[in-house]
Amino acid sequence: MTRPPIRVLIVDDSAIVRGLLARAIDDNPEITLAGTAMHGEAALTFLARQEVDVVLLDVEMPVMDGLAALEQIQKRFPDVRVIMVSGHTQEGADVTVRALGLGAAGCVAKPMGRNASESIATVSKELIPLITALGGKSRRSLTGQSVFKAPSTFVPTRIERAMIPRVVVIGSSTGGPQALRTVLTQIPVDFPLPILIVQHMPPMFTPMLARHLEKDTGRPTSEGAPGMPVLGGHTYVAPGDYHMQLVRRSDQVTLELTQAPQEHFCRPSVNPLFRSAASLYGSGVAALMLTGMGEDGLEGSREVASRGGWIVAQDETSSVVWGMPGAIVKAGLAQEILPLEEIAPALLRRCLQETCRS
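-> structure tokens emitted (358 positions)
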């Protein structure tokens, strides 16, 4: 039986952008344009009358902006997935990262090119796989999951002393900002290990992600920079368009950024981070693979596993897209497969304060 096409609603106050986005999805038989709306309030009216699977939502609009509309969509239509469509401004990027942290499933940049054909081709390359991945998943809302602040003091639980983590590395993509927020806000402020993150995002968005994670978690959080020392108690986010990996210089572990070729069509890719962490820390690596499309991080996870590291994959039910975590589960690399809310507690159980060290 043929699956019905994914129904998409485009919400943007610009008729030109609405037209370009409509043309970008027009030629794909798996997707159909359910309708368009000029602002958030009109979108809510449309959703009350028509069935929609995915909403493409502008950030800055009159009457009701993207953040307000996202909140109402999650509350009133929890099965609908939302992709933010961001302008090429710092303010637009900041609002988009906030929206992703609140539960938007993904983001794309507004069509922008020398001509309409180039704009459509550019946005289609990113948008079509995202829509098909989101529309192909069972529409179960994640917005009801609680995100709570961690206890003020790290109180470890006694476990076996083998493979005590010395560093935490995390890979995420589609749905990742909300998943990162959920996991990291459950980790106490005084958690002693360095945490390094690869989230698939364009360059303009990664500094905003670091800023929001620092605000949410209370831990020092930075976008990675060349030669930056890797310190216990700090969190580092790979910058957009750069692979981030760990190197040892004398007695100090530092960050190295490269623009080596993409891996799994991604830069940053999870693989360089995971591989370099495994090389330096061996069995002391705790690798967390969160929601995301594709299979990025599979090879890096193999390296972590081969050196005795501990790998946790987010389970399918709680993932927005079970691509990246699903790939390492299917490869038999994950020691634990956990709902999103249980990942941080599992990490804390694995750490004894006196033996967790950078």
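DSSP finds eleven helices and 14 strands in the chain.
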